[in-house]
Design a protein that fits this description.
By secondary structure, this protein is of the alpha/beta class. It is built from six helices and eleven strands. It is globular, with a radius of gyration of 16 Å.
Length: about 240
């Protein structure tokens, strides 16, 4: 039974990439909505799951990007309906903002690199991430969810205490990491931020090479996230 998954893409440089491949491999039918290119944000009722991708804008930039407000409403509607929903990076921050939390500039600065996921005890029996085990993931972000809304549960954090994964509702999750990205996606981001990285002494090209070398590891780590989301979508549908 095919699961209908709505994917919200915020800009051309932040595509679903590997996550789309994994979702389709698990039997999902994808509808990619590109509001940056003029697509209207659809109602959630026609879909079995929702994935909200990353982007360079902030979660509070509604005045600059017309669709952010509608996407936040889509997230609230999905949570109310019990539709399995996953926010990635900006999508995670939008989920936090949409449900009463705070997403803002990280006080510790931009996160760039492969990070260990610091699972908290609350993640052990989580229906989406409980079986992922020890994994690393790509992080590329200036902003974070710094305050969770009432009822949300932190599931993972960095060694410095920065939120990495949270559950915002019974079937709604956000990951600050980028499970979908690879070295090709990241290389384009590096070009955009090269001046900042040079100023901070970051060898971004070496980091891109490290991501390329870790491809098999990252596939094995994060493909199960997509597969489990499709399973939850089927369960919710029935």
């Amino acid at each position: 039974m095919s699961a209908r998954v709505l994917v919200i893409e915020h800009e051309a440089g932040c595509p679903p990439a590997h996550f789309a491949t994994w979702l389709r491999g698990a039997g999902a039918e994808l509808a990619v909505c590109r509001p940056w290119a003029g697509d209207e944000v659809p109602a959630v009722a026609a879909y079995d799951a929702v994935v909200v991708l990353g982007g360079s804008m902030g979660a509070g930039d509604d005045d600059l990007h017309w669709w952010l407000g509608p996407v936040k409403q889509l997230i609230r509607d999905a949570i109310d309906r019990g539709t399995p929903t996953l926010g990635i990076c900006l999508g995670h921050q939008l989920m936090g903002a949409a449900t009463g939390g705070v997403a803002e500039r990280s006080p510790l600065g931009q996160q760039v690199g492969l990070y260990d996921v610091g699972w908290l005890p609350e993640a052990a029996d989580d229906p989406l991430v409980g079986d992922l085990g020890p994994v690393r993931g790509i992080q590329w972000n200036h902003d974070l969810v710094t305050k969770l809304p009432d009822g949300a549960v932190a599931l993972a954090q960095t060694a410095a205490g920065e939120l990495q994964v949270a559950r915002f509702g019974p079937r709604a999750w956000g990951v600050q990491l980028h499970p979908e990205a690879d070295e090709l996606v990241i290389a384009a981001w590096v070009d955009d931020d090269r001046d900042e990285h040079d100023a901070r002494g970051i060898d971004a090209d070496a980091w891109v090479a490290e991501i390329a070398a870790a491809r098999a590891e990252l596939d094995a780590a994060w493909r199960p996230l997509a597969e489990r989301l499709v399973e939850l979508a089927r369960e919710a549908r029935t």
